[in-house]
């Protein structure tokens, strides 16, 4: 059963222009989107309710070059991708504005970055070009179709860490829900969709060079809600998957070492793209999301994932997705947006010491 039509699918013709990544998309149906209020009502309760807590934003040791894939001086291009059609709930489209309102960009510059604040993607006419380092503010996880297409065109050797409760490895043929946010990885894999021209609206993906994501270039962290068909694909394709069971068993430190090792063992100079779905985190800390699942990452584990990828020196781009302030009231919405904000700061080098 497919709810999402061709018009609602990302059109992304990423191209590499002298080291630049470009993200043209076209979500024609986006014009129909009704943006909800961009402010979070924090008066009522929800979420864990930690009350008034302190958070210190300090960059790591400046003498270490932790971002070897980023131009010097350290520059980050921030693009909002306000997409909400990949799943049934309106609201993920407000997150870029909410993150900006919370002072995200100011924090990134206080962490020592030159911040290139690019306009939000306009899904009718999109072509965004970002310099070496890119941060996308989702939107639902269907934006991964566009970002991966663009990133792999610019840097085909990129390895991907997909932090998520879900595998997002469905295809229109096997998806139980028909929701596009559950398909970005399936659509990027040749083994699962050999010719994307058969999917109405995705014909553009086969134009020109269209690098695919190889199963051995992907690592999952945080899985705990996998569809039956996805499980079969993960096994048959031999995709490295660290589920919540592995995190319980090995600890997040060992899991992240193994995840990074899997991508960098053969080529330590390879760039890493980190795709962070907020639903990887336990709903106790991130209740404002559309497909919440119990038993997720703790607050510290959620941060550690980012901090440790930064320490590898290989992080080149990242996206944070599925924040939806309309799906939790008051405190829960604020805490979710705040966590998203902090995770982006951690991806930009903010750390404890
Ligand atoms: N990015 C997400 N939150 N994905 C949830 C996907 C859930 C389910 N597996 C589906 O395909 O519908």
From TrEMBL:
The keyword Manganese applies. The lineage of its organism: Eukaryota, Sar, Stramenopiles, Ochrophyta, Bacillariophyta. Binds 2 manganese ions per subunit. Keywords: Arginine metabolism, Hydrolase, Manganese, Metal-binding. It catalyses: L-arginine + H2O = urea + L-ornithine. Its cofactor is Mn(2+). It holds the Pfam family Arginase. It comes from the Eukaryota. This is Arginase. PANTHER family: ARGINASE. Pathway: Nitrogen metabolism; urea cycle; L-ornithine and urea from L-arginine: step 1/1. GO terms for molecular function: arginase activity; metal ion binding. Belongs to the arginase family. InterPro entries: Arginase, Ureohydrolase, Ureohydrolase_dom_sf, Ureohydrolase_Mn_BS. Its EC number is 3.5.3.1. It is an enzyme of class 3 (hydrolase). It comes from Cyclotella cryptica. GO terms for biological process: arginine metabolic process.
């Amino acid at each position: 059963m497919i709810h999402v039509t061709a018009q609602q699918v990302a059109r992304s013709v990423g191209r590499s222009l002298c080291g630049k990544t470009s993200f043209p998309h076209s979500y024609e149906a986006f014009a129909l989107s009704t943006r909800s209020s961009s402010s979070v009502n924090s008066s009522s309760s929800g979420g864990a309710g930690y009350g008034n807590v302190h958070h210190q934003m300090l960059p790591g040791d400046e003498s270490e070059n932790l971002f070897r894939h980023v131009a010097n001086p350290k520059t980050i291009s921030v693009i909002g991708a306000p997409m909400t059609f990949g799943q049934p709930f309106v609201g993920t489209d407000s997150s870029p504005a909410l993150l900006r309102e919370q002072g995200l960009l100011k924090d990134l510059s206080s962490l020592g970055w030159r911040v290139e604040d690019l306009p939000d993607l306009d899904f009718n006419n999109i072509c965004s070009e970002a310099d070496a380092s890119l941060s996308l503010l989702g939107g639902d996880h269907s934006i991964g179709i566009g970002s991966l297409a663009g990133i792999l065109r610019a840097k085909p050797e990129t390895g991907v860490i997909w932090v998520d409760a879900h595998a997002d490895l469905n295809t229109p043929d096997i998806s139980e829900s028909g929701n596009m946010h559950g398909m970005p990885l399936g659509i990027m894999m040749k083994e699962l969709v050999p010719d994307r021209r058969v999917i109405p609206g995705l014909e553009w993906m086969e134009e020109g060079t269209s690098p695919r994501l190889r199963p051995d270039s992907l690592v999952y962290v945080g899985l705990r809600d996998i569809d039956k068909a996805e499980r079969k694909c993960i096994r048959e394709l031999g995709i490295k998957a660290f589920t919540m069971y592995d995190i319980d068993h090995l600890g997040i430190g060992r899991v992240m070492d193994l995840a990074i090792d899997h991508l960098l063992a053969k080529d330590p100079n390879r760039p890493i793209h980190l795709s962070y779905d907020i639903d990887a985190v336990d709903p106790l800390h991130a209740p404002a999301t559309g497909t919440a699942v119990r038993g997720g990452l703790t607050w510290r584990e959620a941060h550690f994932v980012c901090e440790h990828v930064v320490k590898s020196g290989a992080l080149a781009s990242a996206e944070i997705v599925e924040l939806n302030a309309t799906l939790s009231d008051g405190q829960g919405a604020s805490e979710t947006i705040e966590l998203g904000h902090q995770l982006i700061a951690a991806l930009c080098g903010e750390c404890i010491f």
